[in-house]
Recover the amino acids of this structure.
């Protein structure tokens, strides 16, 4: 008898009819409306959409930094009620501490969890090795390139051993060559660590290279408009017929002006 894949029975993350609004100058501004989707263990999911469609708000809801106005955001079948190290967020701006060296930057999250300093530094060293930066443990943040800083930020996020890694346009500030190198590096890391990933990007090609699934959120307020699975093996050739077909479907969605006002994709 063929048993079902246990990872696909219960979602790691579930949005159930989620609406998020803010009071803005005495007006109620709805950012997301009636958003529902599921993400399963070890999936790499990219979220595409125009600026202002609520992509970063989705990450904030999963991280526990904000709460839905209505509906439920579930992690392992339980409502998310606060930030937790099981769901770590990496920003575009690196958010490293300039007064700490690279090793201590990576160890920081472990020391806040009351691990002994020696243990924290050992784990930090392990994850710097994982991202190929062992030789830079004693360097200051100012001595690193943009790509290296982002690798440190990813190492710091992974060091606390989260179940879910949240990335908010992490490569958006990098030059094209460094960005492509970081895409390859992230694919390698996620294959090795088997984390569940939710990755926000403005780049269709980046999503096609990285994702197991692509979600498109758009409109005012933001709604789920497209959800597709990509089965192509990695590394991926974007001229592959399947990827070209998916890319055309995505671009067709993104070309609808009534749904994607102000998009910078």
């Amino acid at each position: 008898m063929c048993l079902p894949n246990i990872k696909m029975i219960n979602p790691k993350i579930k949005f159930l009819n989620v609406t998020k609004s803010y009071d803005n100058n005495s007006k109620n501004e709805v950012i997301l409306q009636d958003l529902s989707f599921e993400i399963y263990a070890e999936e790499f999911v990219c979220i595409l959409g125009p600026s202002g469609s609520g992509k970063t708000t989705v990450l904030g809801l999963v991280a526990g930094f904000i709460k839905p106005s209505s509906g439920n955001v579930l992690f392992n079948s339980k409502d998310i009620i606060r930030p937790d190290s099981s769901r770590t967020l990496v920003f575009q701006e690196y958010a490293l501490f300039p007064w700490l060296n690279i090793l201590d930057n990576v160890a920081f999250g472990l020391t806040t969890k009351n691990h002994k300093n020696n243990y924290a530094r050992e784990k930090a060293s392990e994850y710097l090795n994982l991202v190929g930066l062992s030789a830079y443990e004693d360097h200051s943040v100012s001595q690193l390139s943009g790509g290296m800083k982002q690798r440190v930020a990813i190492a710091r996020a992974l060091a606390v051993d989260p179940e879910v890694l949240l990335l908010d346009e992490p490569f958006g500030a990098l030059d094209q060559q460094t960005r492509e190198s970081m895409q390859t590096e992230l694919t390698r890391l996620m294959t090795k660590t088997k984390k569940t990933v939710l990755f926000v990007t403005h780049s269709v090609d980046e999503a096609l290279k990285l994702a197991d699934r692509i979600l498109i959120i758009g409109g005012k307020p933001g709604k789920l408009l497209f959800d597709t699975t990509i089965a192509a093996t990695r590394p991926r050739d974007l001229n592959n017929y399947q990827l070209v077909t998916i890319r055309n479907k995505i671009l067709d969605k993104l070309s609808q002006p009534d749904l994607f006002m102000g998009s910078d994709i």
User: Anything to note?
Assistant: Confidence is low (pLDDT under 50) at residues 260-265. The beta strands are 13-24, 27-39, 44-48, 70-75, 78-79, 87-90, 164-168, 196-200, 213-218, 223-229.
